[in-house]
């Protein structure tokens, strides 16, 4: 018989929403480029909170908090992650460039960098595209680089919120290896 015991909520050392907003671990922001599913947006908020990302920028018709449908997957993370809406992704990317961010699109292109080979030691903005059309052509043209998650199945397609989690974990894992 195992001695594993789940931790109780009082043992998890959870931060307040305000403390979580101030304590970003990774200088990484997600840029959501016309994401149509509110469940996906909520899931990305939850991932960003869990892994300590700096912020989320919601662009175009991507839904914004407060939103009941989004909260079903965000579970309160819309309060603990800094976010801002930009009507146009190009304005968002110009803003981030002026703030010193490296712009990376997550897409499959002829010049993609496989995620497992990517290391970054500067602030990073990761553009995540629409569920059907991917990252917009205009955003892709403004990217400094394109990252790709290697895939081996028939579909060669991952849900946008799953992709966000994979990339964020890769970046956090690399940062933790350097730190410890």
Descriptive labels:
Alpha/beta knot; 180 residues; seven-stranded parallel sheet
- SSE pattern: HEHEHHEHEEEHEH
Main sheet overview:
7 strands, parallel
Number of domains: 1
Structural class: alpha/beta
Detail the poorly predicted runs: none
Tell me roughly what share of residues is in helical segments. 25-40%
| CATH T-level topology | Alpha/beta knot
Specify the CATH class.
Answer: Alpha Beta
Any guess at the CATH architecture? 3-Layer(aba) Sandwich
The strand line-up of the biggest sheet is 3-2-1-6-4-7-5
Total strand segments: 7
Number of helices: 7
- CATH superfamily, called what? SPOUT methyltransferase, trefoil knot domain
Q: Rough shape?
A: globular
Mean pLDDT: 94
Estimate the strand proportion.
15-25%
Instruction: Tell me the span between the first and last alpha carbons.
Output: 33 Å
Rg for CA atoms: 16 Å
Overview of the molecule:
There is one protein chain. The chain has a single domain (17-179), classed as 3-Layer(aba) Sandwich (Alpha/beta knot). Helix content is 37%, strand content 20%. The chain has seven helices and seven strands. The protein has helices at residues 17-22, 38-51, 68-74, 77-80, 89-98, 137-142, 160-179; strands at residues 26-33, 53-59, 82-86, 102-106, 113-114, 124-128, 145-148. Helix 2 links the parallel strand 1 (26-33) and strand 2. It starts with 16 loop residues before the first helix and ends with a helix. The mean pLDDT is 94.
């Amino acid at each position: 018989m195992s001695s594993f015991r789940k931790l109780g909520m009082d043992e998890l050392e959870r931060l307040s929403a305000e403390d979580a907003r101030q304590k970003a671990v990774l200088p990484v922001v997600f840029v959501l480029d016309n994401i149509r599913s509110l469940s996906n947006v909520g899931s990305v908020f939850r991932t960003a909170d869990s892994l300590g990302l700096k912020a989320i920028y919601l662009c175009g018709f991507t839904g914004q908090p407060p939103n009941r449908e989004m909260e079903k997957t965000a579970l309160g993370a819309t309060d603990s992650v800094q976010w801002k809406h930009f009507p146009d992704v190009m304005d968002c990317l110009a803003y981030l460039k002026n703030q010193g961010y490296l712009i990376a699109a997550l897409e499959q292109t002829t010049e993609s960098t496989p995620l497992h080979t990517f290391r970054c030691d500067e602030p990073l903005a990761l553009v995540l595209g629409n569920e059907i059309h991917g990252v917009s052509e205009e955003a892709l043209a403004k990217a400094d680089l394109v990252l790709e998650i290697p895939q081996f199945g028939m579909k060669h397609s991952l849900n946008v919120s799953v992709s966000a989690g994979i990339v964020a974990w890769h970046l956090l894992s690399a940062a933790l290896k350097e730190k410890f």
